[in-house]
């Protein structure tokens, strides 16, 4: 009857709301636009606190509202935060006078007008950490150059860049015609005589990066090529410098030095980084495991604990990322061998990894979970093993929640307790890095909400428990705040939280992040040094086994290692054969353990392809930029 129509319509509305409510809740995680603004607030509070209370010191002490310098001594946090400001800017906020884009332009202006290397030239002959200055300062400069190179083609960004620059420096003091013929120097720009374009600023900062690289280069003058840990600005390596260094300290240069060589034409940097990585790979044990501290003179290990975290982590990362950035099969092979060995000998079913003796993988030396190990899922995602990455990330987040928000530096898995002296959480980014990698890989699946919820857990802990009036405090133990806010908090943790929650961010595109989260463009060939452009734009196909050197670069520039003798090439050919045989044995064992090879989630190196019953030399489909960013699994299947 007609009198029931209003009642029926009301019932229909209630039913629709009941059905749609869960979808609305899910969408709030998939499209977390309001939450992203919270990350902007974190950046604003952290950066403003640093500028007010610490600059030009390296890092902020958030409890005492003061600054401290450890690594560089000239505004390290400002260098580190520069690329974060770029990542947090977008097309809808470039006109925001107080927004991230404005912060990025202002920071870059300060670097252009007063080189961040200036105090090094005028100050004392201070000692620099080769590793830290490389990933933070050199990586930061190359990240800015990468961003400016890519944005110089964006008319909207260029327009707002010019408006902000002009307003800041009062370039109006000289008419346009006079500016056109003014000397193009940093001093002229500071005087308002000309308005530098993005590419001109990028060129100047690249010159700074080259000068900094030359300061670091003497550290690589060792018998093995593995660099010393520290170097002095003017006098080089001290006579009493220890020859012992961490594997990560010696092997984390392939990205920065490789890009610096390609953009400046100075191939000394790539030779040095390549030789160091080569020596570390050659130092592996019979089980393809690496220790964590090595003598740069003898090539022998002083600490034989093999793991994926402290003192070795970023070497795995750089082998894989440099293989992708430079399309280098040799680096991919090296990564595959070492990562496979880590999974076989260190990995545990619950997602935790323990340290073992590199020559006796059955002997556990550290039954520990450490905060630095949390980067591993991000590496696994890049290599295509998303399912294994998910297992490890869940285990790490369970530990995060157990300790009230924050992965401790070291937790004893055997005893279920924290190691004395390693109870703290230092605002580290590794867990956020892995969660954003998984969120991107699963962005078109319901599982994306799981990873974004974990990122929200991290953001909630940071804002609710660690925010203080002068920044963000670390923890010295689960219950006590520490007076420490390292630059990597703004450089990495904040950036990766933004990328995790903003899956449409332009910096999810063709970028590789260095271990300090500075983005390096995959389109580096567009901006390569003109003299070497034909080499890198048209690389010659390589045979299956060669010296670990790109052929074209070897022909045109000389070797990346000390000599190009036939004997040296033969040595590396034999080493490649040993690697291939060991990999084939592991591949066959994996095939035998699976009833159907198509279900085996085993990484296939480019030179081997897992099929039912064994391995073949038929290569799988090449890893391209498109497949990389779709995070296609490298399933070892016959239909590949």
CATH architecture verdict of the largest domain: Alpha/alpha barrel
Distance between the termini: 64 Å
SS elements, strand count: 21
What's the mean pLDDT score? 79
Into how many domains do the coordinates divide? 3
CATH third-tier fold name of the largest domain: Glycosyltransferase
> What is the count of DSSP helices, taking H or I runs of 4+ residues?
24
Share of residues in helices: 40-55%
Q: Outline the biggest β-sheet.
A: 3 strands, antiparallel
Radius of gyration: 26 Å
Based on Cα principal axes, name the global outline: globular
Strand residues, percent: 5-15%
Keywords: Calcium, Endoplasmic reticulum, Glycoprotein, Glycosidase, Hydrolase, Membrane, Metal-binding, Transmembrane, Transmembrane helix
Cofactor: Ca(2+)
GO biological process, one term: carbohydrate metabolic process
Family: Belongs to the glycosyl hydrolase 47 family.
Provide structural commentary:
The chain is mainly α and 640 residues long. It folds into 3 domains: 1-30; 31-152 and 197-564, Alpha/alpha barrel (Glycosyltransferase), CATH 1.50.10; 587-640, no CATH class. The chain is built from 24 helices and 21 strands. It has a 3-stranded antiparallel sheet. Helix 10 (198-216) crosses helix 12, helix 12 (254-264) runs antiparallel to helix 13 and helix 16 (376-383) packs antiparallel against helix 17 (386-402). It is globular, with a radius of gyration of 26 Å. The termini are far apart. It comes from Sexangularia sp. CB-2014. One of its GO terms (cellular component) is membrane. It is found in: Endoplasmic reticulum. The active site is at residues 132, 313, 409, 430.
């Amino acid at each position: 009857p007609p009198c029931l129509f209003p009642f029926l319509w009301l019932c229909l509305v209630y039913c629709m709301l009941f059905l749609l409510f869960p979808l609305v809740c899910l969408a709030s995680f998939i499209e977390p636009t309001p939450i992203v603004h919270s990350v902007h607030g974190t950046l604003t509070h952290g950066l403003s606190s640093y500028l007010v209370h610490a600059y030009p010191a390296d890092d902020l002490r958030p409890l005492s509202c003061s600054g401290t310098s450890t690594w560089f001594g000239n505004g390290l946090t400002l260098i580190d935060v520069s690329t974060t400001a770029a990542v947090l800017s977008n097309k809808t906020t470039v006109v925001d006078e107080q927004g991230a884009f404005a912060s990025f332009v202002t920071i870059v202006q300060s670097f252009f007008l007063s080189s961040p290397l200036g105090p090094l030239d005028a100050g004392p002959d201070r000692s620099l950490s080769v590793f830290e200055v490389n990933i933070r300062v050199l990586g930061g400069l190359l990240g800015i150059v990468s961003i400016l190179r890519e944005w110089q083609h964006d008319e909207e960004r260029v327009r707002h860049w010019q408006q902000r620059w002009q307003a800041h420096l009062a370039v109006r003091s000289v008419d346009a015609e006079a500016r056109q013929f003014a000397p193009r120097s940093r001093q002229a720009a500071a005087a308002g005589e000309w308005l530098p374009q993005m590419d001109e600023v990028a060129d100047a900062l690249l010159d700074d990066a080259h000068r900094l690289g030359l300061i670091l280069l003497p550290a690589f003058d060792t018998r093995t090529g593995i660099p010393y840990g520290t170097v002095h600005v003017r006098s080089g390596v001290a006579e009493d410098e220890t020859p012992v260094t961490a594997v990560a300290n010696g092997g984390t240069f392939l990205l920065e030095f490789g890009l610096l060589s390609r953009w400046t034409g100075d191939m000394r940097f790539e030779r040095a980084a390549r030789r160091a990585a080569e020596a570390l790979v050659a130092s592996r044990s019979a089980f393809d495991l690496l220790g964590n501290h090595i003598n740069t003179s003898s090539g022998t290990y002083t600490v034989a604990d093999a793991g994926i975290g402290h003192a070795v982590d970023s070497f795995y990362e750089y082998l894989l990322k440099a293989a992708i950035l430079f399309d280098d099969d040799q680096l991919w092979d090296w990564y595959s061998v070492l990562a496979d060995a880590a999974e076989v000998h260190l990995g545990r079913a619950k997602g935790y990894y323990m340290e073992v003796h590199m020559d006796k993988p059955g002997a556990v030396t550290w039954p520990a979970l450490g905060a630095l190990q949390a980067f591993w899922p991000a590496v696994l995602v890049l290599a295509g093993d998303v399912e294994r990455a998910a297992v490890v990330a869940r285990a790490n987040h369970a530990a995060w929640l157990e300790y009230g928000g924050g992965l401790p530096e070291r937790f004893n898995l055997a005893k279920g307790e924290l190691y004395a002296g390693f109870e703290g959480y230092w605002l580290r980014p590794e867990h956020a890095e892995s969660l954003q990698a998984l969120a991107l890989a699963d962005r078109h699946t319901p599982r994306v909400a799981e990873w974004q919820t974990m990122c929200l857990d991290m953001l909630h802990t940071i804002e609710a428990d660690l925010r203080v009036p002068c920044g963000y405090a670390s923890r010295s133990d689960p219950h006590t705040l520490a007076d420490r806010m390292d630059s990597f908090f703004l450089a990495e943790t904040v950036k990766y939280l933004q990328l995790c929650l903003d899956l449409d961010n332009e910096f999810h595109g063709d970028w590789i992040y260095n271990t300090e989260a500075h983005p390096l463009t995959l389109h580096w060939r567009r901006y390569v040094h003109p003299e070497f452009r034909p080499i890198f734009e048209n690389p010659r196909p390589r045979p299956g086994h060669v010296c670990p050197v790109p052929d074209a670069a070897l022909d045109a520039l000389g070797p990346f290692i000390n000599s190009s003798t036939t004997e040296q090439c033969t040595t590396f050919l034999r080493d490649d054969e040993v690697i291939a045989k060991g990999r084939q044995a592991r591949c066959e064992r994996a095939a035998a353990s699976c009833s159907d090879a198509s279900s085996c989630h085993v990484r296939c190196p480019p030179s081997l392809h897992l099929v039912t019953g064994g391995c073949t030399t038929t290569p799988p489909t090449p890893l391209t930029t498109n497949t990389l960013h779709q995070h296609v699994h490298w399933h070892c299947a016959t239909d590949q």
